[in-house]
Amino acid sequence: MPEGKLLLDPPLLRLESEAGHAYLSLLLHLHTAGSPQLRAAARVEARLAALCEANLAAFEARPYPTPTPGPRPRGGAPGRPVRGQPGRF
């Protein structure tokens, strides 16, 4: 495998995702249900902003393939599921 193209361990990716979800849930709970003093002491707004910036930076850094235009599926509006097609409802 070429250097720099190492695959991450799938269980570690799942754990990282779960930890990020728990962190976000905690911050959102503190923001909505916490007292103003607790929100200020925990710097909730600053932590939420930093988390959003980190997620956007990670999303922006990922290489995504450019979509190629293709024929639209028959029988439904764009973006709506169509019965009888693989991967569709």
Short description:
The protein is mostly helical and 89 residues long.
Task: Tell me what you see in this structure.
The protein is mostly helical and 89 residues long. It has a domain at 11-61. Helices cover 55% and strands 0% of the residues. The chain contains three helices and no strands. The chain has helices spanning 10-33, 36-42, 44-61. Helix 1 runs antiparallel to helix 3 (44-61). The longest helix has 24 residues, at 10-33.
Distance between the termini: 38 Å
Pairing-aware structural class of the strands and helices?
mainly alpha
Q: What is the percent of helical residues? A: 55-70%
Major sheet characteristics: none
Give the SSE string: HHH
Average pLDDT figure = 77
Q: Would you identify the regions where 5 or more consecutive residues have pLDDT less than 50?
A: none
Strand content: under 5%
The radius of gyration computed from the alpha-carbon positions, rounded to a whole number of angstroms, is 20 Å
Which shape, going by the Cα principal axes? elongated
The number of helical elements comes to 3
Number of strands: 0
